[in-house]
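Bit of a strange request maybe. I'm writing a small parser for structure token strings and I need a real example to test against, not something I typed by hand. Could someone generate the tokens for this chain?
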Amino acid sequence: MHSSELPNVSHAVRISPIAIVGISVVPVMVIVVAVLTSVVDRLHKQKALLDELFEQAAQAVALIDGNGQIVRVNRDFVRLLATLRGRRWDAGSTS
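Reply from user aminoacidic:
Good idea to test on real output. This should exercise your parser:
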């Protein structure tokens, strides 16, 4: 072959520009999925920690939404309400 001759590439595989873009997108998607999986895992762990802290709080705790509705209470809040109701019932039954 002389230097002025072009090589015969008729047997070569052709890759369209779309295929090249598709090939380069796959590793990026794998990385995105891995990062999202890691973030979701961390959020689950943080929620579990928050749940534990909420329940183990040394005082009665209630979460209230923007409409003033109670969304969630911890055990001490339930105990407090039970104690207050018991006192009212006791006071009501003696009068």
